[in-house]
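Private note to self, pasted from the team thread so I don't lose it. Backbone tokens:
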């Protein structure tokens, strides 16, 4: 079982558009962690990828299949490089920043309420 061939071709096209070559990517297979028992402890199904020119690294070991992990690691690496190259806004970073801002407002409100009760 592996990724859909259409998705693989789309990822390869995206790599070509961004100018990312397979030769620039170092891939190592390492032992995964988490659920899976003996399968996870004995086989190297997690993937560690490094884009040598930029130094961006990705580790992916969510699935038991080495092939699936390789595909998802490559996809994550390409998305990260796209963000760096094109300056595309990172949705995860925006989400984290929004949550930080909300927590800051809540903290400020809580301090104001606590200060009002003391008086």
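Design output:
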């Amino acid at each position: 079982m592996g990724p859909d061939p259409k998705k693989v071709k789309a990822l390869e096209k995206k790599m070509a558009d961004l100018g990312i070559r397979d030769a620039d990517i170092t891939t190592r297979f390492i032992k995964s962690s988490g659920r899976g028992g003996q399968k996870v402890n004995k086989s190297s199904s997690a993937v560690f990828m490094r884009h040598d020119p930029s130094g961006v690294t990705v580790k992916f070991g969510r699935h038991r299949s080495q092939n699936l992990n390789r595909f998802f690691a490559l996809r994550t690496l390409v998305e990260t490089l796209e963000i760096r190259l094109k300056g595309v806004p990172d949705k995860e970073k925006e989400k984290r920043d929004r949550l930080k801002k909300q927590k800051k407002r809540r903290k400020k409100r809580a301090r104001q309420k606590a200060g009002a009760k003391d008086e």
